[in-house]
Amino acid sequence: MPARQAVSQVDVQHVKQMVLGRLYGRVALPELVGLDDPFSAVYTLLKQTVSSNEGNSALVLGPRGSGKSAIIDRCLDLLKRQHGATSSAKYYVVRLNGFVHTNDRLALRDIARQLLITQDLEHILIGSFADAFTYILNLLRSNFEESGAVPPVVFVLEEFDLLAQHPKQSLLYTLFDIAQSHQTPIAVIGLTARIDVMDLLEKRVKSRFSHRQIYVRSVQTLEQFKRIAQIALQINTDHNVSAEYASEFNQKVDQLLASDSVVSYMEHLFDFGKDVRQLLQTLASSISQLSVASPFPQLAPLTACMEREMQSAKLQILANISVLELCLIIAMKSLVQLGSTKYNFEMVYDEYKTFMSRHMMAVAAGGAMKIYKKPVALKAFETLIELEIVRPLSSVEGGAAFGRNDLLAGTAAGNRVPKEYRMVQLMLEPGQVMELAADRPDIPAVIRRWAQQ
Ligand SMILES: Nc1ncnc2c1ncn2[C@@H]1O[C@H](COP(=O)(O)OP(=O)(O)OP(=O)(O)O)[C@@H](O)[C@H]1O
């Protein structure tokens, strides 16, 4: 096999910058996965404004990180390329963000800046929003004396629900009003993760809005989730890097994404919220250390980052478990300290019940607590297995052949042993259980002390 040519410093730096840009959301991913419908709805609407001078308004609704901004960016990018090729007429894009533009004055100033209005506007900012906005549009019109018309303007309103918190909603009213009146070709696209956003709009604002709502769903399948990881990491020769480097880089990406630890991390993320942004940011750890000496993505830094992420995700879940679930965890810690390396629900419940009965007075005095009946405790125990805080033991380890799904569903070999008797193991260290109980002001002090024993 011929020796591989050394990768140049320029190539590595270029790839590193470009891929990290994608992973941190500064550079668009080369493809939108599973978002064809919302993409074409937004594109059609923007095209009507930019090419046919129509007024339009719409809300793009979807969970955080589901790709709402990515859809808008891609539509604008496509329009720019098409428009640039077919027409010399100009259009503008104005971006506002509810986090940044916390009042209408700030928004107005930025609208003027983005429309390249250089005149001093301080004197008009004291009047009404509508007057000031009309003044800005007139200034814009005067820049296009030949046509005498205001060119199309696309308003992208990120964190739309926060813009709806402005007093009187003058900004939204004015924009929707102009979009509806068709006198000036503007498109107003609001982006938000609040599905109830319509309830935030005042009646007069609603009356000016087109009521067009475009829904963006989170990634639907694990395959799509994996595909996003792949397109975010892969490079091609258009990126001004040698074909040899690009091809080997992409092979390494595929190997990395096929490794057991990465696959199970992606499955975990998909099961617990399908958070694309977190997936991309975790993958950045395999890219941030690229260098001429190590020009391909490596598994080791990624594994370390995934472990940290899993750990902190688990801690977050743990902070929200119910008091009964916490008591069962403490009971398991107790069993471990008594020398049991494996135990089943019956043993755990027994330990829990014994402690609670012995300390009933103190427990009841510390808050409205009772001894939960066995079926309720079994449900809580199953939740701990689903959350992977408790691990079912395999046949070799526990004496019966079953896994997590068998134990939960009562299927396969696990079926032979009633679920109350199947052996399990707590996945927390005693110190972690102590910290967990110490951080819970809502449990009686006696239970906190039980955890500290
Ligand atoms: N289906 C998808 N296909 C391709 N990339 C996606 C997809 N979903 C999310 N992404 C990527 O995830 C990142 C976050 O997406 P984006 O910023 O568009 O989300 P958002 O819905 O606007 O989030 P927020 O509500 O927090 O503003 C971006 O890098 C985007 O490219």
TrEMBL record:
Q: What is this protein called?
A: Origin recognition complex subunit 4
- Which protein family is named in the record? Belongs to the ORC4 family.
> Which UniProt keywords are given for this protein, alphabetically ordered?
DNA replication, DNA-binding, Nucleus
What Gene3D superfamilies would the database entry show?
P-loop containing nucleotide triphosphate hydrolases
Organism encoding this protein: Coemansia brasiliensis
Q: Where is the Orc1-like AAA ATPase domain?
A: 31-189
UniProt function note: Component of the origin recognition complex (ORC) that binds origins of replication.
* A cellular-component GO term for this protein: nuclear origin of replication recognition complex
